Amino acid sequence: MNASVDKDTCIGCGLCPSICPDVFEMDDDGKAIAKADVPEGKEEEAKDAESSCPVNAISIE
């Protein structure tokens, strides 16, 4: 499963790394990045982060 963050859309709220720190982290520019593909067993957390993003900047495929 692949995770990605649209940095042009991201507002840097920090929800995604708080929900799924195995996949997301905040970059030096204050916006989120997907640091890894979604590990086995973390799919639900990653999808929670995707659905919780206030600007829909996360895609999980």
From TrEMBL:
InterPro entries, per database record: 3Fe4S_ferredoxin, 4Fe4S_Fe-S-bd, Fe-S_cluster_ET
Keywords assigned by UniProt, alphabetized: Electron transport, Iron, Iron-sulfur, Metal-binding, Transport
Source superkingdom: Bacteria
Region feature (Disordered): 39-61
Transmembrane helix is among the record's keywords: no
Single GO MF annotation: iron ion binding
Feature: compositional bias, Basic and acidic residues: 39-50
Annotated Pfam families: Fer4_15 (PF13459)
Role: Ferredoxins are iron-sulfur proteins that transfer electrons in a wide variety of metabolic reactions.
Name of the protein in question: Ferredoxin
Organism field: Clostridium gasigenes
Lineage: Bacteria, Bacillati, Bacillota, Clostridia, Eubacteriales
